[in-house]
């Protein structure tokens, strides 16, 4: 049996437990990377079928719209059970296959510390798959081994001290447009549904304040925090540590 046909490699591959997680937590990073000429893709682990609002069909349409605005090179859904993610060999293998299929330089995953069990399980699944994808004999859809450069984590419900933050001020309006695609989750689709955090009054204001806080830490309007499990090298610390808006932190 020959090796399946593969898409062109991407620079950034982001994993989300549910459709909208990547956009909400790391959409600015993907927009900024796209603007810099990098190819980006997303892999959703579930279809969000257990969500309090919306349906798998409505989420799929929203995801398609968000993907267009992000300018993704591609997007996959592994169809794992929403609310039932577990760190097992059976659930790890499709994640390994996704990494080998897209052959990214950078892998982006949820934070290992989170309130949502699916988010924590997704973080562990991607962490395991990130390593196993490099081992040729590890199961992974029959695809050749691939070794990415790095794995970093975006923050969901909890925010430990980040390793680095990315200034997303220039793409903030674009990010809000991407997040706005998920109308069923934000309660802006005109459908009466159960009360959730995302659909609560003032959520978007609180959401903006969250990223404005991280922006303030570096003298920027908005920023996204990330956690790396290795030392992050700086090739140009003069540029990386420059003042933003005259603010020194």
Mean pLDDT over the full residue set: 94
Estimate the global geometry from the Cα principal axes. globular
Q: Give the helix level as a range of percent.
A: 25-40%
- CATH topology name, in short, is Rossmann fold
Instruction: Give the percentage of residues in beta strands.
Output: 15-25%
**SS-based structural class?**
alpha/beta
How many DSSP H or I helices? Answer: 8
How does this structure look, described?
The protein is an alpha/beta fold and 249 residues long. The protein has a single domain, classed as Rossmann fold, CATH 3.40.50.10320. The chain contains eight helices and seven strands, in the order βαβαβαβαββαααβα. It has helices at 21-35, 56-70, 89-102, 117-132, 172-180, 183-186, 203-218, 237-240; strands spanning 12-16, 40-46, 74-80, 106-110, 150-154, 164-167, 223-228. Strands 3-2-1-4-5-7-6 form a seven-stranded mixed sheet, sandwiched between helices. Strand 2 (40-46), helix 2 and strand 3 (74-80) form a beta-alpha-beta unit. Helix 1 (21-35) packs antiparallel against helix 5 (172-180) and helix 3 (89-102) crosses helix 4. The longest helix is centred in the middle third of the chain and has 16 residues, at 117-132. The radius of gyration is 18 Å and the shape is globular. The chain starts with 11 loop residues before the first strand and ends in a 9-residue tail after the last helix.
């Amino acid at each position: 049996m020959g090796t399946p046909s593969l898409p062109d490699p991407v620079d950034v591959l982001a994993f989300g437990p549910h459709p909208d997680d990547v956009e909400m937590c790391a959409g600015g990073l993907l927009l900024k990377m796209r603007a810099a000429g990098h190819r980006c893709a997303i892999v959703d682990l579930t279809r969000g079928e257990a969500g309090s609002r919306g349906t798998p069909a409505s989420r799929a349409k929203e995801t398609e719209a968000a993907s267009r605005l992000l300018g993704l090179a591609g997007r996959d859904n592994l169809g794992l059970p929403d609310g039932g993610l577990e760190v097992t060999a059976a659930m790890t293998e499709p994640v390994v296959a996704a990494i080998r299929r897209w052959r990214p330089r950078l892998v982006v995953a949820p934070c290992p510390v989170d309130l949502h069990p699916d988010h924590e399980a997704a973080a562990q699944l991607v962490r395991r798959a990130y390593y196993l994808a490099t081992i040729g004999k590890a199961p992974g859809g029959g695809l050749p081994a691939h070794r990415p450069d790095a794995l970093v984590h975006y923050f969901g419900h909890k925010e430990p001290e980040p390793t680095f933050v990315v200034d997303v001020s220039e793409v903030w309006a674009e990010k809000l447009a991407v997040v706005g695609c998920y109308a069923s989750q934000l309660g802006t689709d005109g459908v009466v549904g159960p009360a959730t955090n995302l659909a609560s009054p003032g959520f978007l204001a609180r959401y903006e304040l969250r990223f404005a806080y991280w922006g303030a830490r570096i003298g920027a309007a908005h920023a996204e925090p990330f956690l790396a499990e290795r030392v992050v090298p700086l090739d140009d610390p003069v540029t990386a540590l420059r003042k933003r808006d005259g603010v020194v932190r």
